[in-house]
Every structure is written in structure tokens, then in C-alpha cells.
Specification:
The chain is an alpha+beta fold. The chain is 41% helix and 22% strand. The termini are far apart.
Length: 332
């Protein structure tokens, strides 16, 4: 608890009378909490002043702090104004003091919210800003908060949740953001101010490149399909690829089964995966077949009647399964 003279006492229960306890205050952690808590009081007061939004809850996490205010929406301009005014009051270096009052004396104090207790009522006053009943630890001046950075806001159960950092946490956030900007600036070979413009240009180039790649993949798939069709045995088209990804095999299998009444069995040793598919014209249930046979080859997978895939623990298991399945399908 915080006493009237400012001393902080922690009560330890069930301690033998002759037992002595040595305690050491983690001042860095304590001061961080003081900055966040005092910053919350200030931020809440500014939200009430500028938006008419009362703070309903406060959460102090290891990474950031949040307040939930009874507002359904906050614009970017409003959040910026809240942050600017809060920091202005930090620059004004207003005093923050705490004192105890009686329940009767509360009548003359414009509290944000009436306390639930009737005894040992402790008031935290930010000079000219706010009177709040609070038992927590605080800095002595708003200047000791250092700075307040509002990170974002989000809707939470009909209220607005504001994420923020104060003091050393806010400085650390700035330093980390600056480091990321420097890395991006170096990668794009441009200044910080031009990163967004450069990124938008890169994004357009990436979209164009992706479209060209997809077109080439479609053309390549057409050539591959023609070549693979020459190796069809009965109604079965089976092939092992060395470099294809599972996604590429899926695209090729989809193209072949759309255009032809085939049972397609593809494997890739690059990923030790297999695909079994048809367009509904075959009697084989792909998912059921894999489920019945994968266990003997240490494979895992499944799927529907018309499409299924599996992964294997080794190339050897993959190829053994492929050869067994191919033989079984060809023999009918």
C-alpha cells in the first residue's frame, strides 16, 4: 500500500514472527509502471476533455498499455489531437501529488469517479487536469512521464480501445521503428520519406511480374500436359517430378482432369508429397484409397472422393507408395 507520507509498504502474510525478510526494489520496473500509470491518468483525462469519453478500464501489459473509453469511434485526427494534447501537458510539467481524504471531504473534490471505499481514500491529483481516487504509484511531475505515444485504436465490445506507450517504452518503440525504416531505406536504396512511394512502385512491379509468371506457368503447363498425355496407360496418368511444388502439381492435375477423363497420380521428390485426382469419371475414391494404404508407407494425408494428397517421411516411402499405387490402378 502507499502511505500518506509516500512510503510504499508490502504486506507478507503467514510469516513467522522471528523471520526476517530482505527486499530489493526493482526500480527500473517500478519507474516504468509509474510512467505508464501516470500516463494513463493523463491520457484518460484528455480523452474525457476532448471526446467526452470516460475511461472504463485500464490494462498494463509487458509490451504496451491500453485504455477502453466509452466511444464507438475515434478518427485518426482525434487520436492525433489526444496524443498532442497529452504530450503538451507533459511539457508543461504539471505536478502530480497524492493525499488522503475523508469521505466527507470528497464533496469538495471534482472526482472523475466516486471510490467504492469509504476509508483510507487516496486521491491522485494532476495539477489543473484531474482528481482521481487511486492507490497506485505515480511520478511526481508530468514531465517524468517522458512522452506518450498512441499506437492505434480498435473497437472492443462497443468501446474504443487505445493502445499506447509512455516514457522509456515509447522511446524504445521509436528506436525500433527507426531501425526498421533504416533497413527498408537501405533495401530500397532511397530516403525514409520516399519509402512508401518506392514500396508502391515495387508493389506494382511485383503484380506485373506475378501476372507474367502465372501466364508462363499456364503455357508451360499446357506443354507439359501434352507430353504427359503421351504416357497414359489405360485411364491412368502417373508421373514423378523432381522439382515441382505441391501447388504446381495441383494446378497441373486440375488442368488435366478438367480436360480429360483420367486418374492422375503425381509425386514430387522435392517435397515428398503425392496427389491423386480425377473429375468424377473414375470409380476410385481418392481420399479413401489414401486412408487405407498410407499407413504401410509412413504417409499422412487425406481428401475427398475426387482429390486427395499426402506427405511422406522419406523419398523412399514416397516412391514405394507411388509404384504400388500406380501398379494397382493400371491393373484395375
Amino acid at each position: 500500500m502507499v502511505l500518506e507520507n509516500g512510503d510504499i509498504w508490502h504486506q507478507v502474510e503467514r510469516l513467522p514472527e522471528d523471520e526476517k525478510v530482505a527486499c530489493q526494489l526493482d526500480w527500473e520496473r517500478r519507474f516504468d509502471h509509474m510512467q505508464q500509470h501516470s500516463g494513463q491518468h493523463l491520457l484518460s483525462a484528455i480523452c474525457l476533455e476532448l471526446l467526452g469519453a470516460r475511461t472504463e478500464s485500464f490494462h498494463l501489459g509487458q509490451e504496451y498499455a491500453t485504455i477502453d473509453v466509452n466511444s464507438s469511434d475515434i478518427t485518426s485526427a482525434q487520436l492525433s489531437a489526444i496524443e498532442q494534447e497529452a504530450n503538451q501537458q507533459i511539457y508543461n510539467n504539471r505536478s502530480i501529488k497524492s493525499y488522503f481524504v475523508t469521505h466527507e471531504q470528497l464533496k469538495n473534490i471534482p472526482l472523475v469517479k466516486m471510490p467504492k471505499v469509504t476509508e483510507n481514500i487516496r486521491i491522485v491529483e494532476i495539477e489543473g487536469i484531474e482528481y482521481n481516487a487511486c492507490g497506485g504509484t505515480h511520478v511526481a511531475q508530468t514531465g517524468e512521464i517522458g512522452m506518450i505515444k498512441c499506437l492505434k485504436w480498435e473497437k472492443q465490445k462497443g468501446m474504443a480501445r487505445i493502445h499506447f506507450k509512455c516514457g522509456a517504452r515509447a522511446l524504445q518503440e521509436f528506436n525500433e521503428s527507426a531501425r526498421i525504416l533504416d533497413v527498408l531505406s537501405a533495401k530500397f536504396n532511397t530516403g525514409r520519406k520516399d519509402i512508401l512511394t518506392r514500396f508502391e512502385k515495387w508493389e506494382q512491379e511485383h503484380k506485373q511480374f506475378k501476372a507474367q509468371v502465372e501466364l508462363l506457368q499456364e503455357e508451360n503447363a499446357s506443354y507439359q500436359a501434352k507430353e504427359l498425355l503421351s504416357a497414359v496407360q489405360g485411364h491412368v496418368l502417373a508421373h514423378v517430378f523432381e522439382q515441382k511444388s505441391i501447388q504446381e502439381m495441383q494446378q497441373l492435375a486440375a488442368k488435366l482432369t478438367t480436360e480429360h477423363d483420367l486418374l492422375v497420380l503425381f509425386a514430387t521428390t522435392a517435397e515428398n508429397k503425392i496427389i491423386l485426382a480425377h473429375n468424377g469419371s473414375q470409380s476410385v475414391s481418392c481420399g479413401a484409397f489414401l486412408k487405407e494404404n498410407l499407413g504401410a508407407f509412413q504417409g499422412k494425408g487425406g481428401g475427398s472422393n475426387q482429390s486427395a494428397q499426402a506427405a511422406f517421411s522419406s523419398r523412399e516411402n514416397l516412391l514405394n507408395f507411388f509404384e504400388t499405387a500406380q501398379r494397382q490402378f493400371i491393373q484395375g
